[in-house]
Amino acid sequence: METTEIKETAFEQQVQKLVNDQRTYFKSNATRPVEFRLEQLKKLKSLLLKHEDELHEAIYKDFGKSKYENQLTEFFPLIDEIDIAVKNLRKWMQHRSVKTNLLNFPAKSYLVPEPLGVTLVIGAWNFPYNLSLTPVVGSMAAGNTTILKPSELPERTSKMMAKLINENFDPNYLRVVEGAIPETTALLKQRYDKVFFTGSPMVGKIVNKAAAEHLTDVTLELGGKNPVIFHKDAAMKTGVKRMIWSKFVNSGQFCIAPDYALVHKDVKDEFLELAVKEIEKAHFSDENNNFVQIINHRNFDRVVNLIDPDKVHYGGTYNREDRRINPTILTDVSLEDPIMQEEIFGPLLPVIVFEDIEEAFEIIKGIEKPLAAYLYSDSSALKERFLHEIPFGSGAINDCVMQVSNPNIPFGGVGNSGMGRYHGKYSFECFSHFKGVLDKPTAIETNLKYYGYSEKQLNIIKALS
């Protein structure tokens, strides 16, 4: 026991020193110049490209994600994020002019973006490169120093990120700290200027509570039960094709994947027939590079326990030794079923039939606000209702998950599914503070605000305000 306590104390001291060293480095203003930021971003991109094969190999060994899925869902989006930051950084860093009211005439007003300071990024395991390094790119672009704590579950990808970053960047600027719950707990005891966390709502609450002790700004990218609605006027063939891919990519371990389908009774049979055809057409298998393992046995057992054999319409088979669950569709699902009580995060699709859209909307509203929501319909009126009545972080109409591929759309949750947003310029803003500035010349001066108040004086101020 004493040895464990000594080790934990030693680690906490190392973390404290790292945070203090990064704060000292930040205060030296070394990270602020645009040329420094661009140089570091280009360096990160170069390292990723140089070690691309090693990155692919590591993630495949962790949970069977092929080079092709890794490129599509992690590598390409990450490289694109760096390229967008490099291309636009000078513009993002400029002062942003805002209007000045008459009371302050002839002053000018503007917002000045400035880096926050020392940041902590806690990554997720389901897309370990993308969800760890994309926020880091935002922090770097904004001019901060950064400590990255990757998820420990995909062990090899964590070690790869630690190797690439820790061997090539100044630890006072950018450092990867590996570990599990004890190490994360020790990290969260320190004071940062920003904490960015991706993970479950349960852990998000712990992170938020720890950050609140220091009044630290927090961005939480969490999850939820994301609905997908198929109304009776949906373009079924194309719609189901798009939805099935989005549901089973990464074996459903995707925070914005459809979690359950709400299908109008008139198209239920067509929906199920098309869904099965699309699954069979995909030939999900390791040989086809599109069948990812569940991350570990604990999560495997959790997902399998959500399968009610009496409600399996298709699939329902699995291999625990290989940690693979075949794509599964469940029907006759009720809101009281265990599968509707938590985010699935696996290749199971429960289907609930509705008779009118009010019923579907009420189901969604009865569950915590989702990270994403999707509607398949050609009705302009229904689209408007969906957009204005259903709360969600981001979403799509007649598609699923592809909103995340547009860097001009911010990514983030609402309520239980998270707070804050990032991607593209929103990543820069996420890790920046915008100082509001009133810049007034001295050549002109009025006496309106000075002592010697009168009704006339106050009426003039009121008119100008």
Quick recap:
With 465 residues, the chain is α/β, with parallel strands linked by helices. The protein has helices at 2-27, 34-50, 52-63, 67-92, 130-142, 155-166, 181-188, 201-212, 236-248, 268-282, 297-304, 357-365, 380-389, 425-430, 455-464; strands at 96-98, 108-115, 118-122, 145-149, 174-176, 194-198, 218-221, 227-230, 260-264, 312-314, 318-319, 324-325, 328-330, 348-354, 372-376, 394-397, 418-419, 432-439. The protein is 42% helix and 17% strand.
Instruction: Give the end-to-end Cα distance, rounded to a whole number of Å.
Output: 66 Å
CATH class of the largest domain: Alpha Beta
Mean pLDDT over the full residue set = 95
Number of helices: 15
- The name of the CATH superfamily of the largest domain reads Aldehyde Dehydrogenase, Chain A, domain 1
Quaternary organization? single chain
What amount of the residues lies in strands? Answer: 15-25%
Per CATH, the architecture of the largest domain is: 3-Layer(aba) Sandwich
In spatial order, strands of the major sheet run: 10-13-14-9-8-15-16
- Kindly identify the CATH topology of the largest domain: Aldehyde Dehydrogenase, Chain A, domain 1
Strand segment tally: 18
Most strands sheet: 7 strands, mixed
**Number of separate domains:** 2
Low-pLDDT stretches: none
Per the principal axes of the C-alpha atoms, what is the gross shape?
Answer: globular
Q: Approximately how much helix is present in the residues?
A: 40-55%
Which structural class best describes the helix and strand composition? alpha/beta
- Rg to the nearest angstrom? 25 Å
